[in-house]
């Protein structure tokens, strides 16, 4: 389905002011906050077995992890980059990338006065607190700051409950048995091209373990968000929720994030054991490139959750507004009987952005349920695709799936596409699919204008109304920011 | 308050309004009647600033300001309200969020602080009573799933909220049953004062039984071809538009 809005002759907006705001979010003005120290520990470009060994050695990893990397690398060499997605991906020279850089030391600004005012204005629009602005801008802050003490309090509280929440590297050192047991158990290094690449060269990431019967009392977010600004190019996250546990985890940040590494290939693995529940929310706002599509992050992510135990539940919520190219299908394998998988997504593309995103729900256990709600929003010259698979295996009696897949078009030149796949091998399955395509029309905008609401605010209202079902799934503390993010991302894009 | 001089307007290059002259003073109710296609709705759209229409000649002054130079939202802030003939649905946007955005945009324009949530909700409660809308209104999406009558009542509710200086009611009676017509008209009458004015655009005399006009104008082929008092509406009802058409076309 390729739907394009017909030409719209009469409605012209004054784009001057709004373009300026888009620039705030997308232009190269962020360089001030992200000056790299030339002295960083970086290895030469190129990828071969020596490089993989070097990465592992620099991180002081045990033999088994090096083995894992080497096997992944050997497998990666046999693979070719996939081209099935509805994406126009420029050739990537994997030998031109450096696969290891020690945490970069940035020339830290001294105070918020040193930060680009445009960036600060975006922060303010998003309603990010001053303290956090300082953190996100890389201003050196010491222990006096509240958020630091909050962080310490968090750590103590979590430790009391036996919750493990640390960087992946720390986990390899401190909890090698857990990592070894579960690493690659949901996303094998053989899974796909980017998963193999990540498995060979992953830099760092996060590890979460929730012990039996523990309900994690806080969103693993506020604390993480601050660290998230410096996550690497090949991030790896592993979340294990043991029997009867619960955790809500938030990845990413509404603030615009820039990274000089163009290629990002992350892996997220989630395991939910008996009656465990994991809620994983993402707000992705990587640099999308400029208006003509120059630069921008390629975000090729493999995210998968395994509902291993009976009555377990994994829920993905994502708000995707950034990156030049997004290739991402957070999925659920519903292995346990009565397990539940959910996917709630808002994907916004503007200017020359491309997104091919969706989910896979694999029903293996009996009485398994899945819900998919995907809201695509396309503006400018962007291309936005939903791609989803619902598979019901022969033994999955009484499986249920509900899929709702909506597209909203904001310009004459963008594209919205839907690729739903269904593979149903059990007669007792009930699978529903609904899809709509609509566009913001000038009548809606004029109606708002007549009531005194500016066009920019009207677009924000209308888009958030359209995406409400998904936005409501976000943790409270981020919902408001995410709403503003949608508005800012699309400012000036109607017409 | 409103002085329209020689107003010409076109859509897609086709001229619809061909020289309108009209003056409206505070406290007045003007009815604009006319056969289908005479330009009644175009006049209301042009006054509200609908960008689909192009003003090709003439001027419109509103309290001494050049109305045509203003954006649609500034016209709203200055006190122009249009009750739409076909109110637009905005899925997922609750009436409470929509009205709050509208009220606070208006307050911002007047350099006033945003209304507190409590005050705002109190205002919503008071104003919806005027058009007998129930308390489910706040949570419902803008016009989505509203019946024809509810949509028009919702328009008058918004008018009550925004307290305009000039209200333009575009075919507010179309599609209304007799009860809805009564509720809508009562609402309009309740909001009337010697400080504000109303332009009622209608095809039928029926609405004017409820909202008594001070002046009646007949629009035909993009011009006001006849003006008079309330008796003109009755005469039209009796003789039909053919009489006017004949007079003009001859």
Question: How is this structure best described in words?
Answer:
The complex is a heterodimer of chains A (495) and B (250). Chain A is built from 13 helices and 18 strands. Chain A is an alpha/beta fold and 495 residues long. Mean pLDDT of chain A is 81; it is low at 1-39, 138-150 and 222-231. In chain A, helix 10 (222-228) links the parallel strand 2 (205-210) and strand 3 (236-241). In chain A, strands 1, 2, 3, 5, 6, 8, 10, 11, 13, 15 and 17 form an 11-stranded mixed β-sheet that branches. Chain A has a 7-stranded parallel β-sheet with strand order 4-7-9-12-14-16-18. Chain B contains 8 helices and 12 strands. Chain B has one domain (2-249): 3-Layer(aba) Sandwich (Rossmann fold), CATH 3.40.50.300. Chain B is 37% helix and 28% strand. Chain B has 250 residues and is of the alpha/beta class.
Helix content of chain A: 25-40%
Shape of chain B: globular
Number of helices of chain A: 13
State the separation between the terminal residues of chain A, measured CA to CA: 23 Å
Which regions of chain B have little confidence, pLDDT < 50, spanning 5+ residues?
none
User: How do the helices and strands follow one another from N- to C-terminus of chain B?
Assistant: EEEHEEHEEHHEHEHEEEHH
CATH topological fold name of chain B: Rossmann fold
Provide key terms for this protein.
heterodimer, A: 495 residues, alpha/beta, 11-stranded mixed beta sheet, 7-stranded parallel beta sheet, 18 strands, 28% helix, globular, disordered N terminus, B: 250 residues, Rossmann fold, 6-stranded mixed beta sheet, 4-stranded antiparallel beta sheet, 8 helices, 37% helix
């Amino acid at each position: 389905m390729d739907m394009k809005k017909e030409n719209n002759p009469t409605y012209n907006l004054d784009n001057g002011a709004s373009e300026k705001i888009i620039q705030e979010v997308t232009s190269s003005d962020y360089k001030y906050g992200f000056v790299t120290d030339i002295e960083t520990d970086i290895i030469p470009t190129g990828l071969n077995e020596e490089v993989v060994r070097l990465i592992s050695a620099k991180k002081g990893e045990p033999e088994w992890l090096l083995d894992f990397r080497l096997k992944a690398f050997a497998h990666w060499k046999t693979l070719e980059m996939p081209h099935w997605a509805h994406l126009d991906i420029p050739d990537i020279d994997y030998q031109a990338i450096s696969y290891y850089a020690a945490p970069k030391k940035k020339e830290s600004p001294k105070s918020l006065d040193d930060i680009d005012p445009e960036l600060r204005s975006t922060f303010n629009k998003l309603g990010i607190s001053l303290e956090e602005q300082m953190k996100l801008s890389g201003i050196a802050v010491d222990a006096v700051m509240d958020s630091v003490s909050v962080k310490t309090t968090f750590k103590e509280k979590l430790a009391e409950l036996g919750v493990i929440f640390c960087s992946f590297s720390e986990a390899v050192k401190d909890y090698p048995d857990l990592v070894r047991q579960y690493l690659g158990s949901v996303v094998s290094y053989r899974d796909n091209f980017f998963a193999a690449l990540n498995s060979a060269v992953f830099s760092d990431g996060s590890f979460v373990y929730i012990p039996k019967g523990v309900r994690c009392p806080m969103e693993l977010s506020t604390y993480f968000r601050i660290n998230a600004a410096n996550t690497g190019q090949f991030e790896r996250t592993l979340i294990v929720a043991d029997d009867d546990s619960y955790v809500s985890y938030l990845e990413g940040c509404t603030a615009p994030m820039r990274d000089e590494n163009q290629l990002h290939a992350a892996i997220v693995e989630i395991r939910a054991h008996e009656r465990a529940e994991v809620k994983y929310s993402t707000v992705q706002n990587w640099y999308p490139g400029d208006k003509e599509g120059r630069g921008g992050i390629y975000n090729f992510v493999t995210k998968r959750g395994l509902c291993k135990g009976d009555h377990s539940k994994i829920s993905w919520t994502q708000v995707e507004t950034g990156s030049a190219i997004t290739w991402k299908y957070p999925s659920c394998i519903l292995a346990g009987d009565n397990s539940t998988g959910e996917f709630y997504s808002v994907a916004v593309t503007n200017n020359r952005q491309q997104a091919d995103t969706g989910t896979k729900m694999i029903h293996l256990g009996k009485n398994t349920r899945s819900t998919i709600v995907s809201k695509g929003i396309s503006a400018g010259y962007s291309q936005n695709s939903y791609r989803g698979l619902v598979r019901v295996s022969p033994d999955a009696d009484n499986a249920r799936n509900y899929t709702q897949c909506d597209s909203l078009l904001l310009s004459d030149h963008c594209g919205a596409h839907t690729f739903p796949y269904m593979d149903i091998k059990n007669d007792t399955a009930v699978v529903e699919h609904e899809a709509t395509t609509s566009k913001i029309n000038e009548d809606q905008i004029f109606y708002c204008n007549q009531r005194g609401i500016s066009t920019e605010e009207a677009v924000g209202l209308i888009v958030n109304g359209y995406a409400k079902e998904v936005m409501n799934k976000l943790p409270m503390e981020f919902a408001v920011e995410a709403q503003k993010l949608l508005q800012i991302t699309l400012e000036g894009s109607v017409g | 308050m409103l002085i329209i001089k020689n107003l010409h307007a076109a859509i897609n290059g086709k001229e619809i309004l061909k020289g309108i002259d009209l003056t409206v003073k505070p406290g007045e109710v003007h009815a604009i009647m006319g056969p289908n296609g005479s330009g009644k709705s175009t006049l209301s759209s042009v006054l509200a600033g609908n960008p689909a229409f192009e003003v090709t000649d003439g001027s419109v002054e509103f309290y001494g300001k050049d109305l045509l130079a203003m954006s649609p939202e500034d016209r709203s802030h200055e006190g122009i309200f249009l009750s739409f003939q076909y109110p637009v649905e905005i899925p997922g946007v609750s009436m409470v969020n929509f009205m709050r955005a509208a009220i606070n945009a208006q307050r911002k324009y007047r350099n006033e602080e945003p209304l507190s949530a409590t005050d705002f909700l109190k205002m919503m409660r008071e104003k919806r009573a005027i058009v007998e809308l129930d308390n489910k209104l706040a949570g419902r999406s803008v016009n989505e799933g509203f019946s024809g009558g509810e949509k028009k009542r919702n328009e008058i509710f918004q008018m009550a909220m925004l307290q305009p200086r000039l209200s333009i009611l575009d075919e507010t009676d179309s599609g209304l049953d007799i009860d809805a017509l009564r509720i809508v008209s009562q609402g309009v009458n309740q909001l009337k004062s010697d400080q504000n004015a109303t332009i009622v655009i209608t095809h039928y005399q029926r609405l004017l039984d409820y909202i008594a006009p001070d002046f009646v104008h007949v629009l035909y082929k993009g011009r006001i071809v006849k003006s008079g008092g309330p008796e003109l509406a009755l005469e039209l009802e009796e003789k039909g538009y053919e009489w006017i058409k004949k007079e003009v076309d001859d």
